[in-house]
Amino acid sequence: MSLIKWTPFLSEFDDMDKMMDSMLPAVSGSQFGYTPAIDMYEDKNNIVIETQLGGIDPEKVDIAIENNVLTIKGESEKKSEVEDKNYYRKEIRRGSFFRSVPLPTKVDGDKAVAESGDGILKITVPKATEMKPKSIKIQTKKK
Prior knowledge:
This protein has 143 residues and is mainly β. It is built from 2 helices and 7 strands.
């Protein structure tokens, strides 16, 4: 039995996937293996981003915020395939990953905090304080 490649897209999009792979090889496979899914929400003071990174050493994950764009990249442990296994499915993704997402509001990236627990990476980024309009009173000179 041959190995069945799992794709999260419908089979009607296979040709489009192949076309994108040929046009963007650095993104589609050779440089980065997959794109992790994220949840992003806000509370009163923060933007919170969560992603599942189970089985990935947090020390091998890089997080950056530049121009209100969050970038998460890293690498999961590459385990060599065992040739004598007779796979019916091989869906677990290994290798490099990359995700870059614009944040919905201005943030203070210098105060961002990331924590990992139970396979979830949680990044909390404080919203930038808004500049309040300042009223300037015009002074008149007496002649």
